[in-house]
């Protein structure tokens, strides 16, 4: 039996949580895949999301957040410091490598803010559905609908009577 692991798709798709839960429940398996830097995706209400990345050792100048179409990309490039090439370290376990992390966002999900505090980069997202995409109420009229032929006769007859009057 073949098994497919779709968890990498779920981890980088924000706003598709309902679809992800449906597929996960259908497949009924857990993901053990991790990446650098570690991150969390939280849902903070019906239309609000938060991505938190653990970027210890990176400053605001080392990080870049870019959104193009429905793809959010977080890039971290560690600035080179002079004389820091392993001098004085007995063990260096804190990762200071560059990274690029992308998240696929659902339609109408926009970045509302970003904050770096105590080595955690938080990116706030919100789903904003435009008015033309929201459901609207349609008025129901009583009586039989007027046929297109009758409407056309009225329009043609109305124009003809105006021409004869002139």
Brief sketch in words of this structure:
The chain has 166 residues and is an alpha+beta fold. It is built from three helices and eight strands.
What does this structure look like?
The protein is α+β, with helices and mostly antiparallel strands and 166 residues long. The protein has one domain (7-81, 91-137): Immunoglobulin-like, CATH 2.60.40.790. Helices cover 20% and strands 30% of the residues. It has three helices and eight strands. It has helices at residues 7-11, 17-27, 148-165; strands at residues 13-14, 39-43, 48-54, 63-68, 71-76, 99-105, 109-117, 120-127. The protein has a four-stranded mixed sheet with strand order 1-6-5-4. A four-stranded antiparallel sheet has the order 2-3-8-7, with no helix packed on it. The longest helix has 18 residues, at 148-165. It is elongated. Mean pLDDT is 78; it is low at 28-34 and 160-166.
Number of strands: 8
Find the CATH topology: Immunoglobulin-like
The major β-sheet equals: 4 strands, mixed
Q: What's the total helix number?
A: 3
Q: Termini distance?
A: 83 Å
Rg over CA atoms: 28 Å
Please give the CATH class. Answer: Mainly Beta
The overall average pLDDT, rounded, is: 78
Strand neighbour order, sheet with most strands: 1-6-5-4
Beta content comes to: 25-35%
Bulk shape? elongated
The topology string of helices and strands comes to HEHEEEEEEEH
User: Roughly what percent helix?
Assistant: 10-25%
CATH architectural type: Sandwich
Structural class: alpha+beta
The total number of structural domains is: 1
User: Which parts are unreliable, with pLDDT below 50 for 5 consecutive residues or more?
Assistant: 28-34, 160-166
